[in-house]
């Protein structure tokens, strides 16, 4: 199982490895190991590449492709003979060609898991007509046809692969792992108390009557019976996660929050907000600069990097998720929304072509097109918060009732038969 990217940010490939190991298969997982992963199986052997970057950008890119090709081929030829090589695309340059050569050497089958197109991601930086983008587009189409089997993340991508690339694929939707679920109140409280040590928005708004009282901004201990309760007049907890890249414009959320703040100042019955944006990436400093220029009275924003085990707990504790992922190709779906739905967390998500395959407008969340629409949705959803009535509650009820398929079940239905028919 190979990805020319950070394994810690490649949950789908981790899930593939875990599913294969669960069925008794030995797995070599190849990639960059910059963050600790969620893996824990004696059948999985992780092999990490060295990261190389020096010199001007174009030189860096050329050298990176050459170094990656050598590293990947060397590693693939020095593992036990695989029956299959399962490769993530993107990034596919040079990975697809190298994996194909390794498959020829080992007489193995090549499976490509299409998450998106690499050339559409490159076009965000360079423009559609840049020579590098055109080369990448040709490369993906030509070398993508060398695979034996193909998986993809949406039916829209399945159709596009067939129509434009003559590649036949099977749709394997991203599904949440079993640990993405609603967080019990006791665990919520522990998480808030932990985060309050480092992040101001999680600290209680007022001093406790008793010095022994355990309080966060959202929860406190009922001193009569020792149970955790939600704090009266608590703020609403809004969460978004991002890799801080060009395909997510966080100024949309910031403008919506400015509108929300203005409405509170004008007397609207809306709760204060704590807005948590998690993740790491190249544009984080830029957006933190914009956030620092905002002077809200009723909204607090923080941008933490959470430990792997804390992220599902925070999703399962939040009141609303916001997704600003705009697919570069219009053909992939945001995994962060999949995880939010696993936690029965309603979502507001920005529109793109195939989003309807995941977010059902007015059923499990809302779809918006700009900051004005998002601001109106936030005001409508949080009016009268935290009463149980209203859209937020009905969305959560619908998510609970939907009995969503989890990754293990989906993988067993889709990928396992494909492997077994060729043995």
UniProtKB/TrEMBL annotation:
GO MF annotation, one: chitobiosyldiphosphodolichol beta-mannosyltransferase activity
Pathway: Protein modification; protein glycosylation
The Glycosyl transferase family domain, residue ranges: 234-379
Reactions listed under catalytic activity: an N,N'-diacetylchitobiosyl-diphospho-di-trans,poly-cis-dolichol + GDP-alpha-D-mannose = a beta-D-Man-(1->4)-beta-D-GlcNAc-(1->4)-alpha-D-GlcNAc-diphospho-di-trans,poly-cis-dolichol + GDP + H(+)
InterPro entries with a match to the protein in the record: ALG1-like, Glyco_trans_1
Source species, domain of life: Eukaryota
Assigned EC number: 2.4.1.142
Membrane topology: Single-pass membrane protein
Pfam families: Glycos_transf_1 (PF00534)
The keyword Transmembrane helix is annotated on this UniProt entry: yes
Keywords annotated in UniProt: Endoplasmic reticulum, Glycosyltransferase, Membrane, Phosphoprotein, Signal-anchor, Transferase, Transmembrane, Transmembrane helix
Annotated family: Belongs to the glycosyltransferase group 1 family. Glycosyltransferase 33 subfamily.
Function recorded in the entry: Mannosyltransferase that operates in the biosynthetic pathway of dolichol-linked oligosaccharides, the glycan precursors employed in protein asparagine (N)-glycosylation. The assembly of dolichol-linked oligosaccharides begins on the cytosolic side of the endoplasmic reticulum membrane and finishes in its lumen. The sequential addition of sugars to dolichol pyrophosphate produces dolichol-linked oligosaccharides containing fourteen sugars, including two GlcNAcs, nine mannoses and three glucoses.
Protein name: Chitobiosyldiphosphodolichol beta-mannosyltransferase
